[in-house]
Design brief:
Blueprint: E1 3-7, E2 10-12, E3 18-25, E4 34-39, E5 46-51, E6 59-60, E7 68-73, E8 78-83, E9 92-98, E10 107-108, E11 111-112, E12 119-120, E13 124-128
Parallel strand pairs: 2-13
Antiparallel strand pairs: 1-3, 3-8, 4-5, 4-9, 5-6, 7-8, 9-12, 9-13, 10-11
Length: about 130
């Protein structure tokens, strides 16, 4: 059974940084494209960042370009979302997700698309406020 568990959310001041973690069980993250998404109440889930299974490059949506980076620790079967220069507009519940198939092709140059991802964590709240 696949399980993804996010952690690391919290309250941070504008301009601050936060690192989210996504620990996996039931699959090896290094074989899958990894996506990070966020959602605010009343809005659709937005893909913000992703990393293909075959390289260590982060692809971001325009809204977080230059501020967010994805990394992976294969020994811990965990991926991270490093968020810098946070603004109140980044306030949301953040989710990690993987597709159901191994290999690449689920991470585009403009970030991940939610409808292509199958396994989801429960989410972690990030609040950016003074």
């Amino acid at each position: 059974q696949v399980q993804l568990v996010e952690s690391g959310g919290g309250l941070v001041q504008p301009g601050g940084s936060l690192k989210l973690s996504c620990a996996a069980s039931g699959l090896n993250l290094d074989a899958y494209d990894i996506g990070w998404f966020r959602q605010v109440p009343g809005k659709e889930r937005e893909g913000v960042s992703c990393m293909p299974s075959t390289d260590w490059i982060t692809y971001n949506s325009d809204s977080v370009e230059g501020r967010f980076t994805v990394s992976r620790d294969d020994a811990k079967n965990t991926v991270y979302l490093h968020m810098n220069s946070l603004t109140p507009e980044d306030t949301a519940v953040y989710y990690c997700a993987t597709p159901s198939s191994v290999g690449r092709g689920y991470c585009s140059a403009t970030g991940p698309s939610p409808d292509r991802y199958t396994y989801w964590g429960q989410g972690t709240q990030v609040t950016v406020s003074a």
